[in-house]
Amino acid sequence: MSGGRGSGPVRVLRAVLARVPPAWGGLRRRLVAAFALVAVTSALSTGALAFREARTGVLQQSQDSVIQQFRTSVHHAVAAYAPPQPGQSDLQRVVDQLLQANQSQGWRVLATYGSLRAAAPSPEFDKLSPGLLRSVRTQRAAVFQRVSADGRPFLVVGMPVTYNAGEGMDSRLSGLVLYLVVPQDTEQAYVEAMVSGIERATLVTLGLAVGLALLAASGVLRPVRALRRATDRMAEGHLDVRLAVNGSDELADLSRSFNDSAAALEQSVAELRRLEAQARRFVADVSHELRTPLAAMSAVTDVLDEKALNLDHETSDALRLISEGTNRLSGLVGDLMEVSRFDAGAAELNLDEIDLAESVRRTLSARGWQGQVETRLPPPGVLRARVDPRRLDVVMANLVGNALRHGAPPVRLTLGVREERADVAWAVITVTDDGPGIAEEAMPHVFERFYKASTSRTRSESSGLGLAITAENVHLHGGRISAANPAGGGAAFTVELPLHRDSAADADDDIDATGGAR
To answer: What CA–CA distance (Å, rounded) separates 228 from 29?
Structure first.
């Protein structure tokens, strides 16, 4: 009779979860959903069991009461108005008597005897099922059935009339059968009231469950949020952050584990920083201490180089080796000093707006490389940028020198402009050669300190710091540097330096993307 009305709380639960803000996602939403689901399931299960028992009790009590009352009424009516072989009028008097004795019950009564039939208060009697009719013909006890018609519940009772055949003998059927149809609107209303009560109780339980879930979620999420904030602060470099530990549950254990890990991490990082600072200081101190004797040695070797032509062959070769070693050592000390300044954060830019093409020409001219390098540069005064001239000279000298030493001619240098967006442009400097290129396994390490791509270069004049210093100088300008092996062979190093919009616009009018003049 209830039809599926118990699904109402489930619809309410879905509506509540649908209204949960996106910020309540994750653990909070799962806790609320789990609490609500358990509450609704428990309430529905309890309500369903209570409803079934109450409904069965209500209908059973109503059914027993109606059957007992109908049996008593039939007994009196048949004894008073029905002879052993009743006629049509006898059947009608029995029906009328039954209705008169139960006027307030809303009964409808049908009496049959053979082919005779009498009904009241109306002749329509369409609620007798074939199964009920068969049971009445074969049984000596009352038969009942609950049916629903036009949305209303009815109790249908079939009662055969029996006569006592004598002492010690079974009763026999008289052939007279009385049928009763009585509406059960009162019982239906009572059952619906129970369903409504169960739904209201379920909604109240759901509300309490959601409230408890929110409280539980707040208690669970409070340390989780604190852990997230602490983790964010650690990611920002605040390694001294710690969590407050309250209680002795799993969350408290998690907080203690976090604090222990943070303390260990802080100690490890502090030790690493101390060792790193000590290493930087050692390199800087050693480099500084070596500069004075190296300066003296360089002065002496310069004097000896001038007199080497007047010495014998063996002494001249020895002086040459000493001079080369001194020059290499001086270069290494200079590179180490530069690296130590980068590590200490003491490297500074002395910016000046210069003509990039003219700066490149001066770098090549100062080292005597004009005839060894093919250049494609814009005309003088076209491409200007704010850079540190000294550091740009170091970048170009390292890249071109690296190509001349380890590549193969021709070495090419191009300078151009690349537009990235309407408000962003880059000066692009590319140095290429036709040598063997860079090994694939060495490609990720070419800008690392002291890295040499080939074991044959371990004893070369290169210290392995040139490309690392070049990359540091480019990054100091806010630029980018990359290495690649072009399809045609050789190696290519590309430096990109940011340009001001006015400089880029002026340059773009006079040069193409590869640096050639228009």
So the answer is: 18
Residues 291-309 have a mean pLDDT of: 71
Rounded to an integer, the average pLDDT of 276-281 is: 73
- Concatenate the DSSP letters of all residues of 114-142 into one string: TTEEEEES-S------HHHHHHHHH-SS-
Closest by CA to 405, choosing from 397, 414, 413, is: 397
Peptide bond into 378 cis (omega under 30): no
Q: Which residues pair with 355 in a beta bridge?
A: 384
The answer to whether the beta carbons of residues 427 and 513 sit under 8 Å apart is no
pTM of this structure: 0.47
CB count in 10 Å sphere of residue 514: 13
Instruction: Please tell me the predicted confidence (pLDDT) of residue 168.
Output: 52
Which residues does 185 contact at the CB level (< 8 Å), separation at least 6? Answer: 152, 153
Q: What was the pLDDT predicted at 287?
A: 64
What pLDDT, in 10s, does the model give residues 331-357?
Answer: 666 666 777 777 767 778 889 999 999
| 3-class DSSP state of 176 | strand
CA distances to 93, 192, 449, 512 from 361, in Å:
133, 98, 28, 19
- How high is the pLDDT of residue 29? 74
Residues forming a β-bridge with 502: none
Phi, psi of 260 (to 5 degrees): -65, -45
Radius of gyration for the chain, computed over Cα atoms and rounded to the nearest angstrom: 52
The percentage of residues in the chain with a pLDDT greater than 90, rounded to a whole number, is: 15
Rounded Cα–Cα distance for residues 82 and 153 (Å): 31
| DSSP symbols for 41-76 | HHHHHHHHHHHHHHHHHHHHHHHHHHHHHHHHHHHH
**3-class secondary-structure state, position 420:** strand
Instruction: Specify the pLDDT at position 309.
Output: 66
pLDDT grade, residue 91 (50/70/90)? Answer: confident
Confidence of residue 48 (pLDDT cuts 50, 70, 90): confident
With H, G, I as helix, E, B as strand and everything else as coil, classify residue 147: strand
- Give the torsion through C-alpha atoms of 57, 63, 66, 69, to 10 deg: -80
Do residues 496 and 477 make contact, with C-beta atoms less than 8 angstroms apart?
no
What's the rounded Cα separation, in Å, for the pair 23 and 17? 13
**Placement of tokens 């027993």 in the chain:** 64
Dihedrals φ, ψ of 16, to 5°? -65, -45
Mean of all residue pLDDT scores within the chain: 78
Task: Name, in order, each residue with C-beta under 8 angstroms of 310's C-beta and a sequence gap of 6 or more.
Answer: none
Cα 346 to the center of its chain, rounded Å: 42
